[in-house]
TrEMBL record:
The lineage of its organism: Bacteria, Pseudomonadati, Pseudomonadota, Betaproteobacteria, Burkholderiales. It comes from Pigmentiphaga litoralis. The keyword Protein biosynthesis does not apply. Transmembrane segments: none annotated. It is found in: Cytoplasm. Signal peptide: none annotated. Keywords: ATP-binding, Cytoplasm, Kinase, Nucleotide-binding, Transferase. This is Cytidylate kinase. NCBIfam families: cmk. GO terms for molecular function: ATP binding; dCMP kinase activity.
Amino acid sequence: MSGAHVQVIAIDGPTASGKGTIAHRVAQQLGWHVLDSGALYRLTALACMQRNIPLDAVDQVADIASQLDVRFHELGVYLDGQDVGEAIRQEAVGNGASQVAALGPVRAALLERQRAFRQPQGLVADGRDMGTVVFPDAILKVFLVASAQARAERRYNQLIEKGFSANLLTLLHDLEARDARDMQRVNAPLFPADDALVLDSSDLSIDQTVAQVMAWYKGKLPRG
């Protein structure tokens, strides 16, 4: 099966909408690969921070993105041989990722790297432009949303559970600022693809959200 014919489920949406969790659960049920595209932007931001490169230095940031020494492993994410799985989930890195993701040359540098994840038996890709830019031919495109308050509370609980200090109001303000930046950027702004199905998970459990995505996917398959 050539890469172009491998099925893709694209799950897009704003920060902390639960894309990553849902993508991993769906991929696990199907036995498919998973792409956390946001991790690539977080890794780019982290690499720039470690090298004291300003996040608005377009050419330098794009150069970093094109040369990332990254390995994804079920036990962690490695940058230059170091496990940075926890580091890239810090709020400062997340905000940095939103900044570098607005840079056209950075998105171009990471585009083919993302498409290379499309391998048999299939791929579940989560991000902000999976259905609109990276995999426009995805068999199913889901735009996962939740209220800003619900997303801030989820992120707060995640950080507390991992032992990080967090302030709910600060998280809410940061999240709203990132939403605005992601939706207003010139390059690949955040919006649902024309053929995407919008799923509001504000009042849904993880299992309920996964079940809806799976039902939509099964509905896309040929009868019989």
